[in-house]
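Lab notebook, bench 4. We co-purified these components, and the gel suggests they stay together. Before we commit to crystallization screens, I want a quick structural picture of the whole thing.
Request: model the full complex, all chains together.
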Amino acid sequence: MKLLSPITTKIVTYELREVGRSRWLFAYAAFFLVVADSLLRFGGADKALLSLTSVTLFIVPLVALVFGTVFLDDAREFTELLLAQPVTRRQLYAGLYLGLTLPLAAAFILGAAVPFALHRIGDPRLGVSLAVLLAAGVTLTFVFTALAFVVAAFVDDRLRRMGTAIALWLVAAVLYDGLVLVLAMLFADYPIERMMLGLTLGNPVDLARVILLLQFDVSALMGYTGAVFQQFFGGAIGIAIASTALALWVMLPVALGLRAFRKRDF
Amino acid sequence: MITVSGLEKRYGAQQVLRAVSLDVRRESVTAVVGPNGAGKTTLIKSILGLVHPDSGAIRVDDVLVGEDCSYRSRIGYMPQIARYPHNLTARELLAMLTDLRKAAPDAGPLRRDETLIEQLALTEQLDKPLRTLSGGTRQKVNAVAAFLFAPDLLILDEPTAGLDPAASAVLKDRIIAERAAGRTVIVTSHFMNELEELATDVVFLLEGAVRYAGPLDELLRRTRKANLGRAISHLMMEAAAA
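Here is the predicted assembly.
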C-alpha cells in the first residue's frame, strides 16, 4: 500500500500553504530562536542545550495541543466541505494531520537549530545531542497534535475542548512527574523500580526527558524516573528502550485520532 | 437517483431522524422543508456521508453511502455556513477542489464551469484571502464551488441565506437552468415562495419524520391550497391537531 495517496498529498500541500501563513507559527519559531540564542549568549553551549531541553519538554506539547485544537476548530466547516468531495476520511485525516504537524515541527527545528548554527557550535558531541533534542521535540509534536485530534473528537463544546487540551498538557508536562515523585516517596520502603519504569513509559514527555538526559549523561538533572532508568538499563539500552516506547506513543494517538475521525459526525 | 430507507439518527437524547424513507427522482428539484430542527441538514449530511446514521440505508444510484466515496465526485454541495481557511484565497480554494477531483481514483475528464464567478461579480475578489471577505461574498464562493464541476447532483443547504437579492436571483436562475439540463437538485430553504419557483418535488420533515414526500402539484391538490407555503402550514396544523 502506498503510504500517502495523491489526494492526501494534495491536502497536505494546501494545508501547508494555509498553516504556513499563520502568524502564530512564526511566533512559535521566533520564540525558540530567541530562547536558544539568548541561552547560547549567556552560557556555554552545554548549559544552553540543557536549558533548551527543559523549555522544549514544556513548550512543545503545549503549543502542539493548543495550536492543534484551534486549528481543528477553525477547520471544522472546511473539513465538512472536503468530506463532501470524493475523499475518504482516512485520506483527509492524514492530510489534516500532516498539514498541521509538519509546519509545527519545521518551525521548532528552525527556531531551535538556527542559533546553534549562527554561533558556530561545531563540537560533534554537541551536534549529536542537538540532533537528539530536535528529534525528541519533533516526536513530541507528532504525539500531541494527534492528541488534539482525539480531544476534538471526544469533546463537543469549544471551550471545554480547549480546557481539556490544556488539562492534558498540565498532566503530561507538569503534574505527572510530581505524581511519580509522590508515589516514590510513599513507597520508599518497597522495591518499586519496575513500577517507576512502567510509569515512565506511560508519559511521552517523561520518555523524551529520559532519552535526552541519558544522552547528555547528567544524572543530577534526570529526576526520579531518569535515575531509575539509568540504574536499570544503563545509558545506551535505556535510550533504545525509551525511544521505542516513544515511537509507540506516536502511533497510539494517531490511530486513536483516526478511529475517532472516522466515526465522527460533521 | 437517491433512495433513503428507514433512516434513524439520534444525537444523545434527541431523535433527529425517525424512520425517514424517501426517493429523490432524477431530474427533479426536491425542496426539503420543515421548521428549524426538523432534521433537514442531518438528512442532507447523511446523503453526503458527513453524518453516520444509526440505522437505515441510503443509495445514490445504487451505490450504498458509507462504502466508498467515489459517488461524491458527481455531487456539488453548498453548505449552510461558509467558513474557510483564513489565509487561502478563493482562487486557491477552487484550485484545491479541482486538484482533489482530479486525483480521485475514477475521475473522468473534468469540466470546470466558471460562469457563476462572473455572474456573481466575484472576479475582483478571487485573489483576496478568504477571511477578508464578507459573509455574503463567502457564500458566493460557496455557490461557485458547488456548481464548479457541472455535477449530476446538486445539494444546496439554504443557498440564498445571506445573499443579496441580485445574487439570489442569479442562483435561482442557475438552479432552473440545471434542472432543464437534466440535473438533479436537492435544496433546503426557509423561504417558501422562493422554493415554489424552483421545486418539482417536496419533502416535508417535522420533528425528524417525513410528513410528505412527493411531487409539488400532488401536495397542492391534496391540501387544496394555492401555494407551497399554505400547503405546508396546512400540514403543520394537521400535525398539531393530531
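The mean pLDDT of chain A is 86. Worth comparing against the SEC data before the next meeting. The radius of gyration of chain A is 19 Å.
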